[in-house]
Hints:
By secondary structure, the chain is mainly alpha-helical. It has helices spanning 20-31, 36-56, 64-92, 97-119, 126-149, 161-177, 195-224; strands spanning 185-188, 191-194. A two-stranded antiparallel ribbon has the order 1-2. Strand 1 and strand 2 (191-194) form a beta hairpin. Helix 2 (36-56) packs antiparallel against helix 3. It is globular and about 50 Å long. It starts with 19 loop residues before the first helix and ends with a helix. 39% of the residues are buried. The mean pLDDT is 90.
Amino acid sequence: MPAQSYQPGERRPTATRERKVSQWAARLLVRWSVSANAISLAGLIFGVAAGALLAATPHADGWDRALWLAAALLTQLRLLANMLDGMVAIASGQASPVGELFNEVPDRIADAAILVGLGYAVDSNIPLGFTAACVALFTAYVRAVGKAAGARQEFCGPMAKPQRMFVVTVVALYCGLTPADWQPHWDVPPGSLGLPAAGLALIIVGGVVTAVRRLVRIARTLRTGPS
């Protein structure tokens, strides 16, 4: 199928995409001949780098605050790239089936890298990080299976990708900006857990609720047809 005749699928509804600054940035990237796939790969790099910085916080030797703040910035840059790649693809006529792969696969890797990285962070918990990554992948899997079965794409929350990254960003900013005695700790075997672990637990619970909501909505659509 030629790229020119390809019609891109549903995109995640977001108000940020409609803002003038977002549209200006997309037009600028088109003018600079930046490909949508390159932006998708940049988002992957931002996500993996954010995860690496989060995982490095226990070994920072006084630089942990800088790592937290840099990870927060990279997490938001990852989201920005995820938004701009689709906008650039449509504005430049680059939308294609291969572009869908570049849009989805790096997203899943970046999600896992950030959440696993947060599991290795200071005052966090490694099993929680891997569990959060698995839950995030499962919510995306449910959406993809629903689409393949003939339903519309379900982007509903309460813990879709933007909300997951919001939780990670808030945790990283709080850990990077507040004094140590402002940061909560809970004595939970086998050791003390802090805000990063609590953030991961919130992502896991919210992710399970999200997956269930998506399954219910997809099943309803497949039974009755799109509303």
